[in-house]
Design brief:
There is one protein chain. The protein is α+β, with helices and mostly antiparallel strands. Helices cover 21% and strands 28% of the residues. The strands form two sheets. It has a five-stranded antiparallel sheet. The protein has a three-stranded antiparallel sheet with strand order 4-5-8. A hairpin with a 5-residue loop joins strand 6 and strand 7. The longest helix is centred in the N-terminal third of the chain and has 16 residues. The protein binds nickel (II) ion.
Length: 174
């Protein structure tokens, strides 16, 4: 049975540390961790979760986009485990949109991101994947990828005036 993992919040040093590449994807520890992360992100209505957020300094994150109360317009995809990723191309075109973070509860920020990216990573079977993402999925990927480098979305913002509370955010989309 997968278990719920405690989420580290802003102020916890683990969120600011660099992560290590996963050496053996097939390892039982890694496989259990992936299952626990997929379970945890669904329990808290997240669309992504990176290993440092559950206090593991490893290059693993989950992209788990589906419509939920926190992200009503999210596209529906099966959760994907992304291991040892790199971003190999980025569009010049940037787009600002709202982001939240499970490690920064209660607020949302308007964050500029590259609209299109090309990435490579290992999937949970150790298979090398090369893919392109755009819009919301590209945004999730960049947000989670940043977590692997000790960066949170606040670091990407252009103005503190682009920060709002979750309560006001919900009113915007009512
Ligand atoms: Ni986050």
């Amino acid at each position: 049975m997968p278990k719920f993992l405690e989420i580290a919040e802003l102020g916890n040093q683990i969120l600011r540390e660099k992560t290590k590449a996963v050496e053996d994807v097939a390892d039982l520890y890694t496989q259990n961790l992936i299952d626990d992360m997929i379970y945890t992100v669904a329990e808290v209505n997240g669309v992504g979760l990176a290993a440092p957020q559950i206090s593991q300094p490893l290059q693993i994150f989950i992209v788990a986009s589906s419509p939920n109360p926190r992200y009503p317009d999210a596209p529906e995809i099966e959760p994907i485990a992304i291991i040892n990723p790199s971003i190999i191309k980025k569009s010049d075109e940037m787009e600002k949109n709202w982001e939240g973070c499970l490690s920064i509860p209660g607020i949302r920020g308007l964050v500029p991101r590259n609209k299109f990216i090309e990435v490579k990573y290992l999937d949970r079977f150790g298979k090398e994947k090369k893919e392109q993402f755009s819009d919301f999925l590209a945004r999730i990927f960049q947000h989670e990828y940043d977590h692997l480098n000790g960066i949170v979305f606040l670091d990407r913002m252009k103005s503190t005036k682009d920060i709002i509370t979750e309560k006001e955010y919900i009113k915007l989309f009512d």
